[in-house]
Backbone:
């Protein structure tokens, strides 16, 4: 029994090392063409309960990304990622934290609160990926 537990622990440690060394989180590529601005905010949905906390109503974070005229404040790919990573780790296991645990510190290819570009026309893209169907 102890040999089996030791083998499982060694396999787990090897997987952690492979994640950190073999699958490093790299910076996202810089934008090609226009500079990119972004606005992050929250929308309340009083008709639904929050799945990941005891809040009475669902709070849905969203991000609007747009062509920018000038750079704004440097942004991270997923600001305040801690609570989301904790929730997904509880749902999907410890491997999730190992694979994407550093996503909150990645530099984003956009900047926050950048001045929008004038002119156009610019495309509008609506992207609702959801995460395992919970959005």
Residues:
């Amino acid at each position: 029994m102890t040999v089996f537990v030791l083998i499982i622990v060694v396999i787990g440690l090897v997987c952690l090392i492979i994640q950190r060394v073999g699958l490093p989180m790299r910076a996202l590529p810089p934008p090609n063409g226009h500079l990119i601005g972004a606005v992050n905010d929250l929308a309340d949905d009083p008709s639904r309960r929050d799945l990941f906390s005891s809040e009475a109503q669902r709070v849905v974070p969203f991000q609007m990304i747009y062509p920018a005229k000038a750079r704004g404040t440097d942004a991270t790919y997923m600001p305040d990622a801690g609570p989301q990573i904790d929730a997904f780790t509880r749902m999907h296991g410890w491997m999730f934290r190992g694979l994407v645990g550093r996503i909150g510190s990645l530099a984003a290819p956009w900047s926050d609160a950048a001045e929008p570009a004038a002119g156009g026309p610019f495309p509008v893209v609506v992207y609702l990926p959801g995460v395992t169907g919970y959005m």
User: Anything to note?
Assistant: The longest helix spans residues 2-22. Residues 28-112 form one domain. DSSP finds three helices and four strands in the chain.
